[in-house]
Design goal:
Shape of chain B: elongated
Order of helices and strands of chain B: HHHHHHHHH
Structural class of chain A: mainly alpha
Distance between the termini of chain B: 19 Å
Structural class of chain B: mainly alpha
Number of strands of chain B: 0
Distance between the termini of chain A: 14 Å
Number of helices of chain B: 9
CATH class of the domain at 87-267 in chain A: Mainly Alpha
Oligomer: heterodimer
CATH superfamily of chain B: MetI-like
Order of helices and strands of chain A: HHHHHHHHHHHH
Strand content of chain B: under 5%
Radius of gyration of chain A: 23 Å
Largest sheet of chain B: none
Helix content of chain B: over 70%
Largest interface: A-B, 52 and 51 residues
Shape of chain A: globular
Chain lengths: 302, 279
């Protein structure tokens, strides 16, 4: 019963966010048709494109066709490639998922380990080093970090290939450049959570019972887990945007490349489709993490 | 809010030091732009000179070298700094004002207002904000108006959330109840009691939010959706194509941006510890 309510709530949120997406585009200043065709377009071309995009209909008719389009997976064709948007998205999805999955797992592992290490050595040299490192890592956004990585590892040291997509070695730099900022955030969060939890009364009880250090650590870790998962879920949107930026830097044929090409070609339907589906995927993962959290820690009610 | 009641902590000192360097740089550049090399009516912008394309940094000619279009990298970076900082302040200040008012109204306003804004802030909060910004920019094109619209529409819910929680806390305090008891109206209450008391928490978010706006703006610029050709993100995107020949361009831009972000983050973190030593 509770699960059903949660599922309904998730669906409602997804529906509402797609709706707000639709209205934000209409509210934004500027006209997509004029932007696609440029300022010197002929009037009948403008009318033709307006009809093709369905922008000549009333807002409510547009909204209806947008909703049915999302539900049936039929968002029309790209303006330039004569392919369906849904099939374009399907072919571009795998690289993005691979990169996102590996970088999130790596960042989760690294971040929680470093955070607990620095929390356990509070106000010592190791703690200071980790904190400075995480501050530095947060200050290089992905689009400056990735070129620097290319510069260091591919051009100066020549360990890794620059840009292509295929084998394992091509994935290292993109995954690394996505991992670093996320790991830094997780390090900070897990350090703070660890310090909060380690002085809690229940940990003192475990010590008094004479439990081994390692066993206590595992229990503390479990108590911190929901917060960390929550941070990952919230940061997922940053990771999503990050994969898009890394893909354009490393020439990876993923969703980000599709979006970037769509932006460059002013392929308005593709941009809209990619963003709508990324939103759906993101929200689904967000709600999965949410229910995972209340399964780990039943006190959490969302 | 008495800010200087106690000594600044270490993070704040570092943050203030770094930020004052940037502030000094900004003032120097504005002086150059409006008075020395240009005038108030015709501000100076770095001009393109293809004969000086990618001159490496040296102490004789250009300290920071020149970029792909032969512009002095220092001037380009300065123009980027003034653009980025002014945009960040403008956007964050607008978000702050919207956020405080909406946060207050969700607490004291009528019920339908409460439900409606709770829903909206929740949705925009978990919504991947950069995607909204990309979408808006792809409709409006490379316009400053669209950029500001996109950044504000994704930025204000963060402030509204904090303002809402803080307003709830402040409304429970006894002096607010006393003020209500002697008949202080809602507007005066808002101005005299709520705003001063919620401002510290909002300020923390504001300082950290500035670095967030700098990053988002640069990310959009990198994707070719910025509002200015001097956006640091756009400069990085240009520098990417000459990474092999002129790595210094990428390095200098990255360091500049990183310095500003470090300064703002240190200031924000320091401010948080300063205002709440237990946390």
């Amino acid at each position: 019963m509770k699960g059903l309510r949660k599922g309904l709530y998730a669906l409602l949120t997804i529906y509402l966010s797609l709706t707000s997406l639709f209205f934000i585009i209409r509210l934004a200043p500027g006209d997509p048709v004029e932007r696609i065709l440029g300022p010197e377009a002929r009037l009948q071309d403008i009318e033709l494109l307006r009809q093709r995009l369905g922008l000549d209909l009333s807002v409510w008719e547009q909204y209806l066709s947008f909703c049915t389009g999302i539900m049936t997976g039929n968002l029309g064709n790209s303006l330039f490639k004569s392919e369906k948007i849904s099939s374009l998205i399907l072919t571009h999805l795998p690289p993005t998922i691979i990169i996102a999955f590996f970088s999130i797992s790596l960042a989760f592992f690294l971040g929680s380990m470093l955070g607990i290490y620095s929390g356990a050595r509070k106000s010592q040299i190791g703690d200071g080093a980790v904190r400075v490192l995480s501050l530095l890592a947060l200050s290089f956004p992905i689009f400056s970090l990735a070129p620097l990585f290319v510069l260091i590892f591919s051009i100066w040291l020549q360990w890794l290939p620059v840009s292509e997509w295929g084998g394992f070695s091509h994935g290292v730099l993109p995954i690394l450049s996505l991992t670093v900022p996320l790991a830094a955030i997780l390090t900070r969060v897990s350090r703070n959570r660890f310090l909060e939890e380690i002085h809690a009364p229940w940990v003192t009880v475990l010590h008094a019972k004479g439990l081994r250090e390692m066993a206590i650590l595992v229990r503390v870790l479990k108590a911190c887990l929901p917060t960390l998962l929550n941070v990952v879920a919230i940061q997922l949107s940053v990771v999503l945007a990050g994969t898009m930026i890394t893909e354009t830097i490393f020439d990876i044929p993923g969703m980000g490349m599709l979006l970037f090409e769509g932006i460059q070609n002013r392929d308005y339907p593709v941009v809209q489709g990619v963003i709508a589906y990324s939103t759906i995927i993101y929200m689904l993962i967000y709600f999965c993490v949410d229910s995972l959290n209340s399964w780990i820690d039943p006190r959490i009610q969302s | 809010m008495k800010l200087m009641r106690k000594k600044m902590n270490r993070e704040m000192k570092w943050g203030a030091a770094i930020l004052s360097i940037y502030l000094f740089w900004l003032i120097y550049w504005l002086f150059q732009k409006y008075i020395l090399q240009g005038s108030l009516s015709r501000p100076y912008t770095p001009d393109i000179d293809m004969t000086k394309e990618l001159v490496a940094p040296s102490f004789e000619s250009f300290w920071f070298g020149t970029d792909l279009f032969g512009r002095s990298l220092f001037e380009v970076l300065s123009a980027g700094l003034s653009y980025s900082l002014s945009l960040a302040v403008l956007v964050s200040a607008s978000c702050l004002m919207i956020g405080i008012v909406v946060g207050y109204l969700t607490v004291v306003g009528p019920r339908f207002f409460k439900v409606f804004f709770d829903l909206i802030t929740n949705i925009v909060f978990i919504f991947p904000s950069i995607l909204i910004a990309i979408l808006v920019m792809s409709v409006t094109g490379q316009s400053l108006k669209g950029l500001i619209f996109a950044l504000i529409i994704t930025g204000w819910p963060g402030y509204a959330r904090i303002a809402r929680g803080e307003t709830q806390r402040v409304l429970g305090l006894s002096y607010v109840e006393s003020a209500k008891a002697i008949g202080v109206g809602p507007f005066r209450l808002f101005r005299k009691c709520i705003i001063p008391d919620i401002l510290p928490q909002i300020m923390i978010h504001f300082v950290l939010g500035l670095s967030g706006v700098v990053i988002s703006e640069a990310a959009l610029g990198f994707l070719g959706l910025g509002g200015s050709e001097f956006s640091w993100g756009a400069l990085l995107a240009d520098a990417k194509s000459v990474l092999l020949e002129a790595p210094y361009v990428t390095i200098f831009i990255s360091l500049c941006m990183a310095g500003l972000i470090i300064g703002l983050n240190l200031m924000g973190d320091g401010l948080r510890d300063y205002l709440d030593p237990q946390g």
